Amino acid sequence: MDPTEFSDIQKTAKDLLRMTFRSHSKLLMTGAAGGLGQAMRPRLQQNCDVLRLSDISPMAAAQTGEEVVPADLSDFEAVKALVAGCEAIVHFGGVSTEQAWAPILQANIIGAYNLYEAARLHGVKRVIFASSNHVMGFYRQSDVVDALSPPRPDGFYGLSKAFGEDISRLYFDRYGIETACVRIGSSFPEPRDRRMLATWLSYDDLHRLITACLTTPVLGHSIIYGTSDNSVSWYDNHLAKHIGYRPLDSSDVFREAVYARTPEPDLTDPAVLYQGGGFVKIGPL
Q1: Is residue 174 pLDDT above 50, yes or no?
Q2: Catalytic residue among 157, 225, 245, 274
Q3: Catalytic annotation on 157?
Q4: pLDDT digit string, tens, across residues 192-214
Q5: What residues contact residue 88 under an 8 Å CB cut-off, 6+ apart?
Q6: Considering the domain 18-281 in this protein, what is its CATH number?
């Protein structure tokens, strides 16, 4: 086969993988004012007729095909009203960094319960739950973990995400609400340090992953690690093949630049030894 022809076939295959379609009439995305929420907002418009956006922080005004509905996740009545009429939920909302227990309790623990209880009451049958690599943060960087590896949270934030995974499991087993627990690595325009060469998830791959979770015929209750196609990885997704996620981006193209601007790792530093990075060293807040 002519190399040019083979290249064209590869490009066509990638274009097909990039395609999405309007799988839902109304989709709810919480955490719309956050970094990932803002990145996914224009992308998720491709997945639905109406994208309902929510956060407690200010959001940009609604565009065509959007609804902007502020809501506090710790307020059950507000969350119940927020979920009404939606067919599926992409849940980015809540505290996204290591903080004191009180705000994490309100947003990530009580908020997760409120969201799932509202989903039950309104008959929502599919949730994409933004979990975190910090659920597994106290595994070493020399370990490879999969969906059956026991959680080892690296702080209150990781602990709250482990709780979110557990409550999603309860609501699947008891009420049939399917959930993809996406243990997001590090989703930024490009990797910032050597650790992120293993954890990096491009915005486009995150959208591909969400799309796969929204459209796979049978989701069940699934755990999947959210990273791009990075050569260095601590995560084994062989138990999530049914989701159909195929990343197209890779941190490898940034490797040389990352090495050039960062020092050699100190192998006595817990942030270098453990998958959670700097989160494992954050003390009481």
Answers
A1: yes
A2: 157
A3: yes
A4: 999 999 999 999 999 999 999 99
A5: 24, 27, 28, 124, 125, 126, 127, 128, 214
A6: 3.40.50.720
